[in-house]
Amino acid sequence: MHSPMLKRLEAFFEFSHLGTNWRTEILAGVTTFLTMAYIVLVNPAILADAGVPLPAATAATCLSAAFASILMGIVARYPIALAPGMGLNAYFTYTVCVKMHIPWQTALGAVFISGIIFLLLTAGGIRQMILHAIPHQLYAAVAGGIGLFIAFIGFQHAGLVIRDPNTLVSMGNVRNSTTALALLGLILMVALEVKKVKGSILIGVLSITAIAWMLGLVHWTHSSIGLGALTGTAFRLNIRGALNKGLLEIIFVFFFVDLFDNLGTLVAVTKRAGLIAADHSIPRLNRILFADASATVFGSLVGTSTVTSYVESTAGVAAGGRSGITAIVTGILFLAAIGAAPFVGIVPAAATAPALILVGSMMLTAISEIHWHEPLVAVPSFLTLVLIPFTFSIANGLGFGIVTWAVLHLAAGKFRRQDWLLYLLALLFLARFIYIGTT
C-alpha cells in the first residue's frame, strides 16, 4: 500500500500519465549517474589547471551537480541531469585562465554574470529570439568543435601530442608510461562502450588509476574532506573584476554555449522519452531554462564553471526514466559523491586523458546534422569546427562561423530581414576581430 505522501508525489510527477513507477525511476537515476559520474574526476582535473584547489573543485562539482539535478527534477519535472559542462570547463581553464591570464576567481565572476543574464532573458522571453537567430548547423559545428577541443586537450595530457618548434605540434613517445596507460585506458573505455556497460568512462578512469598506483606512478597527498573543502572556492568569485576587465566576449561564450548545450540536450532527451507535445513544442520550457540558469549561478558561487544539462541523461531515459524523480535520484547520488573529494588527487593524467578523448569523439556526432553539400552552410560550419581547436578558443571559432555565414549569405543575395539578430551578432564579432584582436 502506498502512503498518502507517496500518492501525492506520484500525482505531482505524473507517474500514471507517463506510465512509470518508483523502481523504474530510481534505476533510471542510478543509470544516469553512472554514465556521467566521470565528471566527478574529470572536471576538477581540468579546473585544477586554472589554479582552482583540487579538493574544493571536486566538492563544488558534486554539490553543483546535485543542486542542479534536484532542482530540474522538482521544478521542471524532467529526467534531465546537470553538471559542470565539458567544453565550457576547458574554455574556462585553457582559454580564459591560462591563455588570457585571467584569475579563476574573476572567471567565476564571468560565469555568474552569464547565469544572471540567462535568468533575465528567460524571464523576458528573449531567449527564443536568440535560439532562432543562430542557424542550427552552426550550433552543430560548435558542438563538434568543442569535441575536437576536448580531445586535443586529452591528447596533450596523455603526452600523445606534444609541442614542436617547427610544426607547432608533433607526436609524443608511445613508450612513455603516461601515454601508454592513456591509450590502454582509451581502448578499455571504448570496449566497455561497445558492450554497453554502464559507467564505462568511470570504470576506465578507476582502472587506469589502479594500474598507475600499482606501478608507482601516482603521487598523492591527503587533502581536506567533503564539504569542508569548499572553503577554497565558495564565494571566492570576483564579479567586480569580471566587469572591470570588460569580459563581455567571455560572458557571451559562457551564455551562448550553455544556452545551446541545454537546447540540444533537451531535444535529445525529450525525443527519446516521447515527451515532446503534438505541436512539436516542449512543455515547461521556461522551467527547464530557469533551472539550467539557476544551476550556473549556483555553480559559480560554490566554485565551478558553467553547469549545463547532460546528454548522458538519455541513458536514464533508455532505462525507463520519464519523470523528475530520475533527475532527483541522480542529484542525490552526486551529493553522496562529495565524500570522494580526498581521493581525487590519486587520479593521474593517464586516467583522465582517455576520458577527454572519448567524450570529445562522442560530441562529433553532431556534425552529421550539417548539410555539407551546401557551400553556404559547409564553409561557415567548417571554419567553426576547425578554428575552435586550432585557435584554442570557442569564441574564435564561433565568431568566424557567424561572420562567414552572414557575409556569404549577403554575397549570395540570401539576406532575410528576419535574420537581423544574426547579422548584428556578426557585426559585433567582426568589430572584435578588427579592433580588439583575438583572445
Characterise this structure.
With 439 residues, the protein is mainly alpha-helical. The chain has two domains: 4-370, no CATH class; 371-439, no CATH class. The chain is 67% helix and 3% strand. The chain has helices at 4-12, 15-18, 22-36, 39-48, 54-76, 88-99, 104-124, 127-133, 136-158, 177-194, 200-214, 239-244, 248-273, 285-302, 313-318, 324-336, 349-363, 375-390, 394-411, 420-436; strands spanning 82-84, 161-164, 168-171, 307-309. Strands 1-4 form a two-stranded antiparallel ribbon. It is globular, with a radius of gyration of 21 Å. The relative contact order is 0.21. The model has no long low-confidence stretch (mean pLDDT 85).
Number of domains: 2
Low-confidence stretches: none
Distinct helical segment count: 20
What is the overall shape? globular
Strands, count: 4
Please estimate the helix content: 55-70%
Main sheet attributes: strand count, strand direction, barrel closure? 2 strands, antiparallel
Which helices and strands occur, and which strands form pairs?
Blueprint lengths: L3 H9 L2 H4 L3 H15 L2 H10 L5 H23 L5 E3 L3 H12 L4 H21 L2 H7 L2 H23 L2 E4 L3 E4 L5 H18 L5 H15 L24 H6 L3 H26 L11 H18 L4 E3 L3 H6 L5 H13 L12 H15 L11 H16 L3 H18 L8 H17 L3
Antiparallel strand pairs: 1-4, 2-3
